[in-house]
Design goal:
- The complex is a heterodimer of chains A (about 725) and B (about 375).
- Chain A is mainly α.
- Chain A is built from 39 helices and no strands.
- In chain A, α3 packs antiparallel against α4, α15 packs parallel to α17 and α21 runs parallel beside α22.
- The radius of gyration of chain A is 50 Å and the shape is elongated.
- The N and C termini of chain A lie far apart (about 130 Å).
- In chain B, about 10% of the residues lie in helices and about 45% in strands.
- In chain B, the strands form 7 sheets. In chain B, strands 1-28-27-26 form a 4-stranded antiparallel β-sheet, with no helix packed on it.
- In chain B, β15 and β16 form a beta hairpin.
- By secondary structure, chain B is mainly β.
- Chain B is built from 2 helices and 28 strands.
- Chain B is globular and about 70 Å long.
- The chains are: A mainly alpha (about 725), B mainly beta (about 375).
- Chains A and B meet through α20 and α21 of A and α1, α2, β24 and β25 of B.
- Chain A: It comes from Cyanistes caeruleus (Eurasian blue tit).
- Chain A: Belongs to the TEL2 family.
- Chain A: GO terms for molecular function: Hsp90 protein binding; telomeric DNA binding.
- Chain A: Keywords: Cytoplasm, Membrane, Transmembrane, Transmembrane helix.
């Protein structure tokens, strides 16, 4: 029937009331009952209960029978459904409260009225299951209508459920509801949502009773999780009940209830945080000495059980993060308990401590107490290992390995090879024949540069020896960047003690039995050291531009990194307007050039022999690669010796000779037409210099050669070079 | 990482220190058995620091490469420890006086890397880098080499000795040809067989050998660790490889085998110990691996009672493990250079059992550890 309007309801109510009161003759048997059974159920129920309860008046015969029939024909579910539908259109809350009262208190009401002569259907143990069925029917209708796309309110059913539970009839109603809902929610999301909603809509004042009912009746934690969803996260009251009241304030629940409850908390990531909090609180209580003294033994057992169940649900990472707390609480608790004079208390302490230790300490030592096992300890221990869903439960320790108690192994750390701290030790390691100490050797090679830089005095004592070792140092094991490392160390040695080391290196440059590689190393080291010496110490930090440094080409792989640095610097320079450029230049110019005093030692020995073929080393012949680098090196040394006294001497005496060969080689190597086309001017200048030997000519020529050498491929240049030709050219030009 | 890290350690130590006096004051309430509980609680929480060596033997004046105990004799016999050093000497240490009784020089000052007695402390076998295996007669104060075998092997592979009958031994040794192993009968020196890997097996040199038999009279079997990291099980009487297991990526430096549990362990220059088992079908299978803190194991020995094992590490440390589950038990950090060898004593009284370790630092450390269990 379509929902009635207010006026129709009132009219129909009046009709029913009069019908109920009407004398037997005025109401034809069968027909009037139909009116009640098919009329709007809420109205009918109200009228029927009124007719029972008109105090003092004569009871209307047949009313009880009709009510009985009303219940048996499932009119309650019609009633609930009716209200649910009304509610969807905003029903009247007062009316609903009245109805809820009437529905839930019906057995009491009838029993009062009939003075104990009530038919069995009104007994609570019969009535509430019936109500449960009615609720299920309504839920089914709700499910159907949700599937049909219709919105539906469930809160009236929730209220009824809550009220029933608070009346202490959880057993009856949930005994019907839970098994059925368990089935329905197994693989049906809508049913799960309906079920969650059913519980969520229970008013706070009745929540506890409902949650408790569910927890007690659910056949397992997974079912409970299905039925309640994340209720504890959404509903404060439910959270309080589950995480506080049931665990810390009450202690009469069975172990199964505890397992349900804690299992439920563990089954969802949102709820796991609650589980951890619960565990913390439980442990706090467990380890509080006043709790140990004042709470009954049953409660302590209860809390211990809860702790063990919590532990059984913990995963490895959670244990990892809470190990410290667990340990502290365990220690506190076991202390209080071992203090106790009651055997049971002490044993409880031992069992729990053992279990915690077992759980938090899967690899290392595990606590082991001696006590007599009994049913209680066995039960407690079984709680820790009976979680099928998480299989990483440690097996109980074997007796075999257990009697071997590990020693402290915290000092067992990775072995660090100690690099020597004295330069003389380094020499010992590097020259040592003990080839097996590769690690030490590596550490030494890595540490040597900084040692040299830190201890200039000590370095000077052994500088030449050190330079010799480094020059001959071969890579023993594969160290990343070994060549650069060696070079940096060589540079450090050379800059620390320039004169003897430069003497040594330059003398070695022309001596026998060196590979090209080593000779070029010498050149590179000389250049880098000269650069370092000539550069003000702070030059790394200041903003002097790259244009003022000569372009030093080294053969090492660091070229690329220098390349990008230069590119970046260049870019920055181009895009930056420097307002204080002049100042910067002045500052730079004002530094003393440390290279001044030693430039000679770098330069002169290098050009001593270049034009004379030596037994194994023919610069102007086959070893042209080295010649190229030599010329390059000389150029840079020259540049770096800016403003030095020797510079003049350098120019006067040797440069001419050296440069002549450079030019001659160049002239020979580059095809004639290219030279004429590209460098006519330079050639003319050269000619005039060769003829006139003017001052300016010397320097111009020098720079010219440097430029050419830098820009032309040295290898091609030198490939066809020969001393004879050079000589001839000299003769000709003279 | 030790599970009880240092912060935990200090916290629990404070607690324990608070707790212990209280426990022992209240003797009336606490049964005697409590004390052991407290003791076990204490040791579990505050893992004891590893012990120091029982004593240290100095005076080899060269790196120690091998050790062998002879302590099984009854009372008047003096417990002895033989050590072989890089200088080519074999020192016989008196474990009562902790002094060298005799120094034997039989390997031309070339490193001695294997020493073993043959049925009593008077007959000794030693192997040196002079490519010789010497048999010594030490009875009545004699120090003479009675016989020797020229191995022609240039590596470091220690020979392995197995007593097959009274006065008869089998000895496995790396042979001249790089991949081969030769089995000799001693003292007759007759060659029993030569174990050659299949053509193209590319095992490399044998690095370590372990000759064993399940019970007296049964067929002798050889486990050999090779340069390529594999362990091969050889049937000695048939001269046939039964099973091969690649245990390591680097040469197998040492192995030991427990024939009761049919389980063995091997170490290499890597960071792992490999534990493997031998199934009924004579197949080697990986059982588990154990990660070490530092790389390099030069020697592994399982204690004769098969309860614990010791490893000699390149990281200067001796490590003790429970053999059943390879539970780490202790790290003995005494030496200042690579430990070359570890050896357990054969004391008849288990409480007197010792562990000795020889190192490149020229010292021999002797430990009493887990002797009670």
């Amino acid at each position: 029937p379509a929902a009635l309007g207010e006026r129709e309801r009132a009219l129909f109510g009046a009709f029913l009331r009069s019908l109920a009161r009407a004398p037997g003759a005025a109401r034809p048997e069968g027909v009037w009952q139909r009116c009640f059974l098919e009329g709007p159920a809420s109205l009918v129920l109200c009228v029927l209960l009124e007719s029972l309860g008109s105090a003092g008046s004569v009871r209307i015969p047949g009313a009880v029978g009709v009510l009985e029939q009303f219940l048996q024909e499932g009119r309650v579910s019609a009633l609930l459904w009716e209200v649910c539908q009304q509610q969807a259109q905003a029903g009247c809350p007062e009316l609903q409260d009245v109805l809820i009262n009437k529905i839930v208190c019906l057995p009491d009401h009838v029993s009062n009225k009939l003075q104990g002569k009530n038919p069995p259907v009104f007994f609570p143990q019969n009535y509430f299951p019936l109500l449960g069925d009615a609720v299920l029917q309504v839920l089914e209708k709700i499910s159907d209508s949700l599937r049909g796309g219709l919105d539906c309110s469930i809160s009236f059913v929730s209220h009824v459920l809550g009220k029933v539970c608070i009346h202490g009839r959880q057993k009856e109603i949930l005994g019907v509801l839970v098994p059925r809902l368990t089935d329905l929610t197994k693989s049906d999301c809508i049913w799960q949502r309906i079920c969650w909603r059913l519980v969520e809509c229970v008013p706070d004042r009745w929540m506890e009773a409902v949650v408790l009912g569910f927890v007690q009746r659910a056949p397992g934690a997974d079912v409970l999780s299905r039925l309640l969803g994340n209720l504890v996260v959404k509903n404060k009251k439910a959270q309080f009940v589950v995480t506080q009241k049931m665990l810390l304030l009450q202690y009469g629940h069975t172990t199964e209830v505890l397992q349900n409850l804690l299992g439920y908390l563990s089954l969802d990531s949102l709820r796991r945080t609650l589980l951890l909090r619960v565990l913390q609180e439980l442990l706090e209580t467990w380890s509080s000495s006043s709790a140990v003294k004042h709470s009954p033994a049953e409660q302590q057992l209860y809390i211990s059980k809860a702790i063990l169940i919590c532990l059984s649900h913990l995963k490895e990472p959670e244990i990892e993060t809470h190990r410290q707390e667990l340990l502290t609480s365990m220690m506190e608790g076991v202390k209080c308990r071992l203090d106790s004079s009651l055997l049971q208390q002490r044993r409880l302490g031992m069992v729990v401590a053992e279990s915690i230790s077992l759980k938090i300490n899967t690899e290392g030592p595990v606590l082991k107490f001696e006590y007599e096992e009994d049913d209680e300890t066995r039960e407690l221990k079984s709680l820790l290992v009976q979680t099928p869903s998480f299989c990483n439960v440690p097996s109980l320790p074997d007796d075999d390995d257990d009697d071997l108690i590990p020693y402290d192994m915290s000092e067992d750390k990775e072995l660090k090879i100690k690099a020597p701290v004295y330069i003389r030790d380094c020499i010992e390691v590097l020259t040592g024949s003990r080839t097996e100490d590769v690690d030490k050797w590596e550490a030494t090679v890595k540490a040597l540069e900084s040692l040299v830089r830190k201890n200039p005095a000590a370095t000077r004592e052994v500088s030449v020896e050190l330079a010799k070792i480094l020059l001959h140092l071969e890579e023993k094991s594969s160290i990343e960047g070994f060549v650069e490392l060696r070079q940096r160390t060589q540079v450090a040695v050379l800059t620390t003690d320039p004169i003897p080391v430069a003497k040594y290196l330059t003398s070695q440059f022309y001596s026998l039995n060196y590979s090209l590689r080593q000779r070029m190393d010498i050149l590179d080291v000389l250049v880098l050291a000269a650069q370092e010496l000539s550069c003000p110490k702070f030059c790394g930090k200041t903003k002097h531009s790259g244009a003022q440094k000569p372009c030093i080409q080294l053969l090492q792989g660091s070229d690329s990194s220098k390349g990008w640095r230069r590119v970046v610097d260049e870019r920055i320079k181009n895009k930056t307007r420097r307002l204080d450029k002049g100042h910067c230049d002045m500052e730079l110019a004002s530094r003393p050039n440390e290279f001044n005093s030693v430039a000679g030692y770098f330069f002169f020995p290098l050009i001593q022999h270049f034009d004379r073929p030596l037994t194994t080393f023919d610069l102007l012949g086959e070893d042209h690669l080295v010649l190229g680098r030599l010329a390059h090196t000389l150029a840079i040394l020259m540049y770096l010796a800016v403003n030095t006294v020797v510079r003049k001497v350098l120019l006067y005496r040797y440069v001419r000779q050296g440069l002549l060969s450079c030019i001659s080689s160049l002239l020979l190597s580059v095809p004639t037409e290219r030279i004429l086309a590209d460098m006519t001017e330079e050639l003319l200048e050269t000619q005039s210099w060769l003829g006139g030997k003017t001052w300016w000519g010397t320097s111009v020529l020098f720079w010219l050669v440097v430029k050419l050498l830098c820009s032309t491929s040295l290898i091609v240049m030198a490939a066809v070079m020969s001393w004879h030709c050079a000589l001839e050219i000299c003769m000709i030009s003279k | 990482m030790h599970p009880w890290n240092s912060t935990v350690g200090s916290a629990s130590l404070k607690l324990m220190l608070k707790l212990l006096p209280r426990l022992f004051q209240r003797r009336i309430l606490i049964e005697d058995s409590m004390k052991s509980k407290v003791a076990s609680l204490f040791t579990a929480l505050m893992a004891l620091p590893p012990p120091d060596p029982q004593f240290v033997l100095r005076g080899t004046s060269a790196a120690v490469h091998t050790l062998y105990f002879s302590c099984g004799g009854s009372e008047p016999d003096i417990p002895l420890l033989y050590s072989g050093s890089e200088s080519g000497f074999i020192h016989v240490w008196n474990l009562r006086t902790h002094r060298v009784d005799t120094a034997l020089d039989g390997h031309g000052r070339k490193s001695v890397y294997c020493v073993e007695t043959m049925g009593g402390k008077d007959r000794l076998l030693s192997q040196g880098r002079d490519q010789r295996i010497c048999l010594w007669d030490l009875a009545e104060g004699r120090t003479s080499v009675t016989d020797s075998v020229f191995t022609e092997h240039v590596g470091f592979c220690r020979c392995s000795l197995l007593k097959v009958a009274q006065g008869r031994w089998l000895m496995a040794m790396a042979a001249r040809s790089l991949e081969e192993i030769q089995i000799l009968e001693l003292p007759s020196k007759t060659s029993v067989c030569t174990l050659k890997p299949e053509v193209g097996a590319k095992l490399g040199m044998p690095m370590c050998l372990k000759l064993w038999q399940l019970s007296c009279g049964s067929q002798p079997v050889l486990l050999a660790g090779y340069e390529d990291g594999s362990v091969v099980l050889w049937n000695v009487s048939m001269g046939k490889a039964l099973s091969q297991l690649v245990c390591h990526q680097e040469p197998v430096m040492s192995l030991d085998f427990d024939s009761e549990k049919a389980k063995g362990i091997s170490g290499s220059s890597e960071k792992v110990l490999s534990i493997w088992s031998l199934n009924e079908q004579q197949n080697l299978q990986v059982y588990k691996t154990h990660e070490l803190v530092n790389a390099g194991i030069s020697d592994i020995t399982i204690r004769p009672d098969k309860k614990i094992l010791a490893t000699a590490g390149w990281d200067h440390r001796i490590r003790i493990f429970g053999w059943k589950k390879l539970k780490p038990l202790a790290v003995l950090d005494y030496h200042t250079a690579t430990v070359h060898c570890v050896s357990f004593s054969d004391h008849s009284n288990p409480r007197e059992r010792l562990l000795a370790a020889g190192s490149k630092d020229q010292r021999i450390s002797v430990w009493s550890i887990y002797a009670q269990t």
